[in-house]
Design goal:
single chain; alpha/beta; FAD/NAD(P)-binding domain; Enolase-like, domain 1; 3 domains; five-stranded mixed β-barrel; five-stranded parallel β-sheet; 23 strands
Length: 479
Amino acid sequence: MPIEVDVAILGGGPGGYTAAVRAAQAGRSVVIIEKDKLGGTCLHRGCIPSKALLRSAEVYATVRGAAAYGVRLSESGEATVDWPSVLQRKDDVVAQLHKGVEALMKQNRIQVVRGTGRLMGPSIFSPRAGAVAVEIEDGESETIVPRHLIVATGSRPRRLEGLPYDGLHVVTSDEALGWPSRPLSAIIVGGGVIGVEWASMLADFGTDVTLVETADRLLPGEDKDISTELARQLEKRGVALRLGAKLDAASCDAADGGVSVRIDTAGGESESLRAERMLVSVGRVGNVENLGFENTDVKTSGGFVSVNPATLQTGEPHIYAIGDVVGGVQLAHAAMHEAEVAVAHLLGQPVPRTADRDVPRAIYSRPEAAAIGWTEAAAKAAGYDVRAVKLPMRIFGKALVHGESEGFAKAVADRKTGDLLGVHIVGPHATDLIAEASLAKLLDAVPWEIGRAIHPHPTLSEAMQEVMLAVSGSASHGS
């Protein structure tokens, strides 16, 4: 007999399990269909394991620089990297969080069906499209007939054609997380968030890193000040940047225990690069294949599911899609927000969807960077009368105490209305500090209101307070 349910969710990543919990809390019967482990890419192949590695790299870098804090290691206490232990810690963190997600499903009485789901057209099970045929791991099958279906199948790393991917020497970020040893040298292709984070991590682990990016700057979607500062910090730590360079995939050779490849540089010359490993991080594509969309009115465009941007409904009004599979901002917290929007809509309690640019963006390099809202250039291009103020982190006591005073806090506002347009931060704990700006955007707070709020001293949060006062014309530290 088919399983009839109020809400079925195809995919158990952050968007999927958040939607499941919200629907269950509203009293709806819920089934999650997941072919792998609950938690999705974020928990098993993305956010969590990569941040665990970044933390180990940060600790190693801190220990090596301990003398700057007046802490000296004995001659026999030289810091070394135990790579198997680094990987084990990463796996332990993932395992603990995976148990938590599993427990969350049980706590909310959410049924989990393990298998590969495929959408069906109208059939004997349902007069409308959207029932899901599930091929279960043991070879049997199950049919789920939901009143509402949410597609949350996520994404995977985009691969460049012509490269000899082998899972060890030439890899995507998925395989790099399981590298059996720490590479002595690495080429990173792609200067987006993943590329920058891996460049920072490997540099901290002592790897000789060359980063190749086709754009003329790192993180081309972010404010230029963020790009410039992170490039400066990476180069300061020995990362060789090749910006405005194009990779010749056909020249790539993974042999003799290493990788060699040729790039065309920004100056029009050709350069040969060689390293032990190569990580390719050039974006992600939606998991839209073999889902049975052809049996429905669900459409795709450019490798992602097409949705109504306000409600996240597909061409079938009772079928929604959320998270990476719809493109846009491919972040776990964006998927969770979209889950809230979709579930609220199917419950008849609409929740406004936040604009992509107002989803906080976090980069977990060293130093960290974070942003929300308009970049200065984009705001000007959109016709705003822009006032932008940038304050250096070195003027704040806690940054000096922390030992990481590089970076800045920047606010972008509309000169005419005083409205806050964007916030951009580089420095210690930037990914935490940006949450205050996210709350300000939600509450439509103007800079002087944020600045008037009392912030404890000495803390890094003072950077937010002072830059908001500065952009409204009353900073105590100047502008």
